[in-house]
Amino acid sequence: MAKIELNDVSYKYPYTKNQALRKISYNFESGKFYGIIGENGGGKTTLCNLIRGLVPHFYKGKLKGDVLVDGTDIRDWNLDELSAQIGYVFQNPFTQISGIKETVFEEVALGLENLGVPKEEIIEKVTNVCKLLKIDDLIENNPNELSGGQRQRVAFASIISMETEMLIIDEPTSQLDPEGTRDVFGIIKTLKESNKTIILVEHKIDMIAEYCDEILVMSKGSIAFSGPTHEILSNPEIMEYGAMMPQSAIFGHAMADAGKPLARIPITLSEAVPLVKDRR
Amino acid sequence: MDSEFINSFRSYQKTGNFWLDLNPITKLNICLAFAFSALIMLDWRYGIPLCLACCVVALLAGKFKVFFDMYGKVCMIVILFVTIVRQIGMRTGNVTPFINIFGWQWYLESFVAGWDRITFILGFSGSLILFFATTPMRDLMYSFEQLGMSHENSFIMLASMQNIIDLKKASVTILESQKSRGIETDGNILVRAKAFFPTLGPLLLGAIASTEEKAIAMDARAFSVKRKHTFLRELAPASTTQKTLSIAAWVFCAATLVFRFIR
User: Fold this and answer.
1) CB A137, CB A127: distance < 8 Å
2) Interval B40-60 mean pLDDT
3) Does a structural domain hold residue A278?
4) ipTM of the complex
5) Which residues of B touch A137 (CB under 8 A)?
6) DSSP string spanning B11-61?
7) What are the structural domain ranges in chain B?
8) How would DSSP label each residue in B201-230?
9) Where are the beta strands (DSSP E) in A112-241?
């Protein structure tokens, strides 16, 4: 059984005329890593809000179709209980800090306190997550005085520490430098290896190409393309829908256009290098 | 990673200072009892020693600067306000001229009459300011939660404190951006007011927008899950000695009431 099943789902925010999501049908399988890409305003964040239960519980509005999480309709889920099942990290790092804790260590522990985890277990989990996210040098700092990038890591650590079965991550690297971005993707990869279901919205397409199992391209509230990462990201048509192609794929197509095609269109640098070598 | 810091969560939070390490509820009981005793006594011979005692406790607790920053301002306002009000209400007749300020005659009797009022207000406010200067709000909320207050109320109190700081920062940012667009923000009070009031719109809209995201962020941390919460940072529950101290403070307060009536 799929972890999340969407069947002919349409959604309209309150007081708006246009539908934010239009006739979406898709199954998210357990243990897979999904990347969602596409134009701004294409419905990526709304789709995340839907899966997380914020639509319709928090935002209200008009929801049509079936949204099943572990076989139960989203309308029948208690939003509070869903938060213990599905972790959610969103774009803005400045509003993800609770504002009630005076150290990063306590901030990361907040979710675990709310879940009633015993203190010794909290200490162990928070220590490990802080090391994993490379924020161990910040644990005594005030989270309200951190930079955007540092806050993003703290917010991410706070959700990871809760060890939810599924994670929805909406542009977690928007405030991070290239090294920080690579670190975060490394952590997401580790989470995937521990068999978590991950849905990631991200514009850094080269990273998406490297780590995701499946891709959804969203445009105007609909899924324009979906399928295995290689198949989708090597398809130049996705650019017509506001999605980017990886540099390696652009290179592969340029080579083909120049009459010197590679054996296949690569989507990552590590895939492109041997293909170029073989061509010589 | 600082293991000493991490290990500090394994035991009750302690500073090594007797007053600071008192359970917040014990401290609140003591401070309230003495504050009310100042109201009951209404006498400068009680008010002044109480003010001094508050200063000494703040000093011993290592929080004198925080305490006096607030208390000093309260002292100034109360002394000025009460003295002026007393002076205005002073009837002429059998009075002793004390000082003449630009033709306004002040009388010695108005100072004497205001003295008791001033010292009881300062004794009362001193006790309360001492409590808030030496008790972190998070410790107070923790103690209230232990007594059964909901964590939602505790969050609202603590988040409001942080929101005030955040709004102040946002206000400065908006003013700075106005300045960079060539709008005059410095100068006399009229210029400042003209620059400040238009910033209230974006400030309030920004605050409302961030409230929605903050609610989602807290929801993501399982804030409303119906389970018994645990606490990483714990305070020692009030010991028998501390409970005795609280009771003794209220007995003392009751004794001042009896003393006031039989005097």
Assistant:
1) no
2) 93
3) no
4) 0.85
5) 1
6) S----S-TTTTS-HHHHHHHHHHHHHHHHHH--HHHHHHHHHHHHHHHHHT
7) 1-135+236-263, 148-232
8) HHHHHHHHHHHHHHHHHHHHTTTT-SS---
9) 166-170, 197-201, 214-219, 222-228
Domain extent, residue A84, equals: 2-245
pTM of the full structure: 0.85
Contact at CB, A119 and B217, closer than 8 angstroms: no
Contact state of A95 with B221 under an 8 Å Cβ cutoff: no
- Dist CA A172 CA B148 (whole Å): 37
High-pLDDT (> 90) share of chain A, %: 73
A126 pLDDT band (50/70/90 cuts)?
Answer: very high
Residue B145's alpha-carbon distances to A117, B82, B154, B160, B231, in angstroms, are 17, 39, 7, 17, 10
Query: Residue B91: pLDDT band by 50, 70, 90 thresholds?
Result: low
B159 → closest Cβ in A90, A100, A136: A100
Tell me if A237 sits within 8 A of A249, measured CB to CB.
no
User: Would you state the structure tokens that stand for residue A251, as one six-digit string?
Assistant: 């290179």
What residues does A199 pair with on adjacent strands? A34, A168
Residue A260 covered by a domain: no
* Residues of chain A contacting B219 with CB distance shorter than 8 Å: 54, 58, 79-80, 83
Find the CATH number of the domain harbouring A174: 3.40.50.300
| Confidence check: pLDDT of A3 > 80 | yes
> In chain B, whose CA is at the least distance from the CA of A92?
B213
Where does the pLDDT of residue B92 fall: very low under 50, low under 70, confident under 90, or very high at 90 and above?
A: low
> What is the rounded average pLDDT for all residues in chain B?
89
With contacts defined as CB-CB under 8 Å, which chain B residues touch A83?
219-225
Q: What is the dihedral of CA A66, A72, A75, A81, to 10 degrees?
A: -140
**CB-CB under 8 Å, B155 with A100:** yes
The mean predicted confidence, pLDDT, of chain A is 92
- Nearest chain A residue (CA) to B170: A94
pLDDT at residue B147 tops 90: yes
* Cβ–Cβ contact B214 with A under 8 A: yes
Number of folded domains that form chain A: 1
**Phi and psi at residue B232, to the nearest 5°:** -70, -45
Q: What is the pLDDT of residue B211?
A: 83
Residues of chain B with Cβ-Cβ distance to A131 below 8 Å are 1
